[in-house]
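The instructor's notes for this session suggest beginning with a concrete chain rather than abstract definitions. Hand out the sequence below and ask the class to guess, before any prediction is shown, which regions might be ordered.
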Amino acid sequence: MKNKIKGFTLIEIIVAIAVIGVLSAILVPSIIGHVGKSKLASANANAKLAYETAAAYCVDTRTAGYPAFDDVNCVSLKWDSDTRPTYLLNGEDMRNALKANMGENSASAGYVSIILNLNSSPAESFWAKTPDDQYVGHYPDQAEEKGEYSIVLDQNQSGDQSNG
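After discussion, reveal the predicted structure:
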């Protein structure tokens, strides 16, 4: 009586590996596209939060009798120390207001730019994880694709990447 060894033949294994390769070649680009879309959605959400934080600061300063007039050009949201920064409602301290309300004590806090309109309220906001990030969020019009917007560091910035 002949014992038959159970198992897969070499051809069956090669075909299975080929099928897995074809499926991964189809799925990997799709997954990478979803990762990019989620990064952009997160950046847009952070830009909206920056816009709303700046708007609240502008309302508070107007209520205190000081119009906000200071555009914010690519300020790092990373705290300068281990404690949450404080800020003044004098219309000139939006950078620290953004750091206090959005920032954290880590390098991943991100960078924000706010452009004010003539009546001292935010017109646009931008957020990116790093100054040279291709995924830059925008509000009120959301960024639709990678590289659509950019945040540019001022040449006259201090060591904490804040303009001022």
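Then share the key points. Residues 10-139 form one domain. Residues 30 and 117 are 40 Å apart (CA to CA).
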